[in-house]
Write a structure and sequence with these properties.
This protein is mainly beta. The chain has one domain: YVTN repeat-like/Quinoprotein amine dehydrogenase (Methylamine Dehydrogenase, Chain H, 7 Propeller), CATH 2.130.10.10. It has one helix and 34 strands. The strands form eight sheets. It has a five-stranded mixed sheet, with no helix packed on it. The longest helix has 8 residues, at 40-47. The chain is globular and about 50 Å long.
Length: 400
């Protein structure tokens, strides 16, 4: 095992609220849960039938939580449209499926917008709030709310088809396995319900908060929780597939899975790399100059991992050994997870800056600034970049 810059800094995560050891102040970044990857290429389409390959149907863009797409954005990005909703704004990010943008805000508003021009197709008001990014599977829209209710909506009209009552706030995007929908709750439980009626099939309890979503690969998911473990769960029956793996700190981030490796950021400012089927890390990275703590998820593609820590740093690691490739210093931290589009990295920062970096070098190649901050990760589809701010505005950038 290789370890990079060993410095654990165990006091780095935020002081808890009364809700639990990992709660802290309610973070506004959307998280997705870790999983071991067995045969992603063979099972990808069967696991999540969402539409076209270039859609962005969940937070992180795909079932493996990589936060990356091969689709390149235009060389010149311009603001194509923006839609003002106002209120308390968005904590979750947008998703895009078949030319429609879906968003849900903290005041209980759920809306569908045309990707082409931002026109509102429908808008629904619920007596709750949403901090989680929605998910789209099997022709339905799914999302959990702050009161622990999980909703299935008709994506054409926004009408509610069923609702499942969980115990506590749902912070993360859902996922789908065959004809089941998976989601987590702050009560430390992973739920599996039927997609048609929302009937409980099984649940897996960790004993501490879960603020991540279940990222899928093959039939296993690893839940990264506030108990400082990865829980290995067989999603066919909800049984533990192996003993929990210690990661030495709580996590709310989404480990990404690429080429039989899983990458796990933690609140202690570390990133773990595990090989599939092995319990000891292949490497673990920590550098107090770069990675104060992670409240978001990393993006991974083609041997490069990109992370944004609360140290106002965006940096890239070599996935082979965890060594640093480049570092980019921000004016203010990025709470939203970075995403990768082709050879570009998109970072949406807490000062309203939207920054495009070169994936290979970390050099800034484009930047614009808007009012507000970004807390949920961006979405990329059909050559367009879509973001939702904490001031209640949805932005779409692309080529005019």
């Amino acid at each position: 095992m290789q370890r990079i810059a060993i410095n654990c800094g165990r006091d780095r995560w935020s002081a808890p609220r009364s809700g639990g050891a990992c709660r802290g102040r309610r973070r506004r970044t959307v998280f997705v849960v870790p999983v071991w990857l067995a045969v992603v290429a063979a099972v990808f389409g069967a696991l999540v039938p969402h539409g076209r390959a270039d859609d962005w149907p969940v937070a992180g863009g795909n079932p493996q939580g990589t936060g990356a797409t091969d689709e390149a954005l235009p060389d010149r990005l311009e603001l194509l449209w923006q839609r003002e909703f106002g209120g308390l704004g968005f904590e979750g990010g947008p998703i895009v499926v078949q030319g429609v943008v879906y968003v849900a805000d903290t005041e209980g508003r759920v809306a569908a917008l045309a990707l082409a021009d931002g026109a509102v197709r429908w808008e629904k008001q619920f007596d709750t709030g949403f901090v989680a990014t929605p998910g789209y599977f099997h022709g339905r829209l799914y999302l959990g709310d702050q009161d622990g209710r999980f909703h299935a909506l008709d994506p054409a009209t926004g009408e509610e088809m069923w609702v499942y009552e969980a115990d506590m706030e749902i912070d993360a995007s859902p996922n789908a396995f065959q004809d089941s929908i998976l989601f987590t709750s702050q009560n430390g439980t992973l739920y599996c319900v039927s997609r048609d009626q929302g009937m409980l099939r099984w649940k897996y309890e960790t004993g501490d908060q879960l603020r991540c979503a279940p990222t899928l690969a093959d039939t296993k998911t690893f839940l990264g929780g506030c108990d400082s473990f990865l829980h290995i769960v067989d999603v066919r029956d909800g049984q533990a597939a192996d003993a929990p793996i210690p990661i030495d700190a709580p996590t709310g981030s989404t480990p990404a899975i690429v080429d039989n490796r899983v990458y796990v950021p933690t609140y202690a400012g570390e990133i773990f790399c595990f090989e599939v089927g092995k319990r000891e890390p292949l490497w673990r990275f920590h550098d107090p100059q770069l990675s104060e703590e992670f409240r978001n998820s990393a993006a991974v593609t083609d041997g490069i991992l990109v992370a944004a820590s609360r140290h106002k740093r965006v940096f890239a690691l070599n996935t082979a050994d965890g060594s640093v490739r480049w570092v980019h210093v921000l004016r203010k931290r990025a709470d939203a997870s970075p995403v990768i589009a082709g050879q570009s990295v998109i970072v949406a920062a807490a000062d309203g800056r939207i920054i495009r970096l070169d994936l290979k070098t970390g050099d800034q190649v484009w930047m614009t600034e808007v009012k507000g901050a970004f807390l949920g990760s961006p979405a990329i589809a059909d050559g367009r970049l879509v973001l939702a701010s904490d001031r209640g505005t949805v932005f779409c950038f692309g080529a005019k």
